[in-house]
Design brief:
Radius of gyration: 25 Å
Structural class: alpha+beta
CATH architecture of the largest domain: Alpha-Beta Barrel
Helix content: 10-25%
CATH superfamily of the largest domain: Aldolase class I
CATH class of the largest domain: Alpha Beta
Number of helices: 12
Shape: globular
CATH topology of the largest domain: TIM Barrel
Largest sheet: 13 strands, antiparallel
Distance between the termini: 49 Å
Number of strands: 36
Strand content: 35-45%
Number of domains: 3
Length: 633
């Protein structure tokens, strides 16, 4: 395949002279998708600079006994263009441009039916998306049996895929894989062309999965059967395209495919940094204090947060009793916790409190009743855990939780195998983050450095992630009650993860005392803003390394991570404003640092840099590096 791909074009691949082919171009003309309807077959195709990427591929949906991919005609086509800029509340960038061209294909079967199908296709400068809208004019219930789309790739490719609370799948060669995988799925089509397949606006039906057959270079979509009355509207099937993996991560295509914000006043939605009690239980400070699940410990957290530019405290599970017990009432705290006293103390110190809520308690004692009580106490957010039910149930309940949280001015973080993000934070920006990943030490196991340089390129395409990064006590944390394995990695990498990982809440898992032991390193975290202004991937390779730059007012942070290999990287500072001078504080691994053998050694250095400079940094095996660029006035 050619290495240059500036134009994605579609050429006619059909020999019949009276074929029906409709093309849709992106606003810049670089992306074109073709929809054909020859001999009653609905097909999609996609080429890159004359090289076929997706050849003629069946496209359609199965509703009851109607197959809207064969024996169909396109009766009418509506075409439109849209262009706007909107401000984010909880986003990677302050301003997002939503610019696309759209065609709606009105599809009918050959037999008379009350059921009709519309195919909505949109092209953006960084990809394309489609969805089906099924209408039944009789108003009767309709059964969605599946999707008959099968994308036929012309050439073999490598892929990676989301894998729940474990290290992601990949790299795997498509032609050798007979597997069902979850999305996001990232494809390396060649070394200068990547594609991410996922969904947007996942609000009613179960998330799709992808099936590879192991013999052909093709993939299909697996959909859970469901039914609906009147109208059925699928989520958007999304295809983000870029020259490098970082382009997929920078894309705003998913949020642009969701409805605008439904919350009229968003002033109370404030991303930030948070301390977390859960992993600190059992930690003994030098002054003899031992952290437990009680108000005394929570006040100690609050004091530290108020003095160190940390905005929140997350009080995790069991604060109202054993979280999985149906007798544990989330509207009444357990013995040892005075929730009203804690809230009053936090308010005095200007710290917000986030409360854990298990699905068992929410459903047993009434979701709205519980959320209202949290709000009346003065909580600012909810961490929602272990949602039960089918995937369709979980999708719909997620939207219910988010909407009710908005009603009571509560931000929300979903944990424990949540529904995939799909850009829905645009509609409800109080949906701050999700544990759509393997967070360090969660699932009672640790992850190794390769996960930290794979997840950003896969999981984070979907949306903000709660990794719970920022461990400082890497040598002894596993002796605590809620840390089950030794944590591999370096302390310099733990700081860098806070820059690389995009999340509305940066949840810090360690004790105040451990942060103060390395005060000069922790000062980098103090300097981080509650919310960054931008997100730019400077360089990276899936599973190897990544470098991300994020703006913070007039200043910048650059976070870099590597896998188990030591690595030197040159950071191109061309993104800085021309003529500006910066003091660079560089938080690095020490010469002898190692992710298992010497985890807590680090060094802090300083130099002056200009826009356009190349800044060389070094990372130890499993390590990382953070650069704080402070503008010199």
């Amino acid at each position: 395949m050619k290495k240059i791909w500036f134009f994605i074009i579609v050429i006619s691949m059909f020999s019949c002279k009276n074929e029906k082919v409709e093309q849709l171009k992106s606003p810049d003309g670089n992306i074109v998708v073709a929809i054909s309807n020859e001999k009653g077959l609905l097909q999609i195709s996609h080429l890159v600079k004359g090289d076929t990427i997706i050849g003629n591929s069946p496209l359609g949906i199965q509703i009851q006994d109607l197959d809207f991919s064969t024996h169909v005609t396109i009766q009418d086509i509506e075409e439109s263009t849209f262009d706007e800029k909107w401000h984010t509340v909880n986003g990677k960038n302050e301003i997002v441009r939503n610019h696309y061209n759209e065609k709606i294909f009105h599809i009918r079967g050959e037999t008379e039916s009350d059921i009709s199908c519309d195919l909505v296709l949109r092209c953006y400068n960084d990809g394309f998306a489609y969805r089906f809208i099924i209408k039944n004019i009789s108003g009767d219930s309709i059964q969605w049996k599946g999707e008959n789309t099968k994308l036929n790739f012309e050439n073999d490719f490598l892929y990676w895929a989301y894998n729940g609370e474990q290290h992601n799948i990949g790299p795997v060669r498509c032609s050798s894989s007979q597997a069902k995988v979850r999305t996001p799925m990232v494809l390396e089509l060649d070394d200068s062309l990547y594609m991410a397949i996922h969904e947007a606006e996942i609000v009613r039906y179960a998330p799709m999965n992808i099936q590879l057959d192991g013999t052909e270079k093709s993939l299909g979509f697996i959909i859970d059967e469901t039914s609906e009355k009147g109208e059925l509207q699928t989520s958007w099937r999304t295809f983000i395209v870029g020259k490098r993996p970082g382009d997929l991560l920078e894309s705003d295509l998913l949020v642009n495919l969701n409805e605008p914000c439904k919350i009229e006043d968003t002033s109370w939605i404030k991303p930030g940094k948070s301390l977390w009690d859960w992993r600190v239980w059992g930690y003994k400070a030098k002054d003899g204090f031992e952290y437990e699940l009680n108000t005394i410990s929570h006040k100690r957290f609050i004091d530290f947060a108020s003095e160190n530019n940390i905005q929140y405290l997350l009080i995790d599970a069991d604060w109202y009793g054993p979280e999985f017990s149906d007798s544990s009432d989330p509207t009444a705290a357990r013995e040892g916790i005075n929730i009203e006293e804690c809230m009053a103390y936090a308010k005095k110190k200007k710290i917000g409190v986030i409360l854990y809520l298990n699905d068992v308690g929410a459903k047993k004692f009434g979701l709205e009743r519980v959320l209202k009580q949290f709000s009346d106490w003065g909580a600012v957010g909810v961490k929602y855990g272990f949602m039960q039910g089918s995937w369709e149930d979980k999708v719909r309940h997620t939207r219910e939780v988010v909407a009710l949280c908005a009603k009571y001015r509560l931000m929300v973080d979903f944990h424990d195998n949540p529904v995939p993000p799909g850009g829905d934070r645009r509609t409800y920006p109080n949906l701050i983050t999700r544990e759509f990943c393997h967070a360090q030490a969660d699932a009672k196991r640790s992850y190794f450095p390769e996960t930290a340089v794979t997840s950003p390129f896969i999981n984070m395409i979907a949306g903000p992630l709660d990794y719970t990064n920022g461990w400082f006590d890497l040598n002894n944390a596993h002796s605590r009650i809620r840390v089950f394995e030794e944590i591999p990695g370096t302390v310099a990498a733990e700081v860098a993860k806070l820059v690389v990982a995009y999340s509305g809440w940066m949840v810090l898992p360690d004790s105040p005392e451990e942060y103060l032991k390395k005060d000069d390193l922790f000062d980098c975290i103090r300097k981080m803003p509650p919310q960054f202004d931008s997100f730019k991937v400077l360089d990276g390779k899936i599973g190897a390394y990544i470098s991300v730059a994020r703006k913070a007012g007039d200043n910048w942070f650059i976070g870099s991570l590597t896998n188990r290999d030591a690595r030197d990287v040159e950071l191109d500072l061309a993104f800085l404003p021309e003529g500006k001078k910066y003091k660079a504080l560089i938080y690095s691994d020490a010469a002898n640092s190692h992710y298992t053998e010497d985890k807590e050694s680090y060094q802090v250095e300083e130099e002056v840099v200009l826009a356009g400079d190349m800044l060389k940094i070094s990372m130890a095996p499993g390590g990382g590096n953070t650069v704080f660029l402070e503008e010199l006035k």
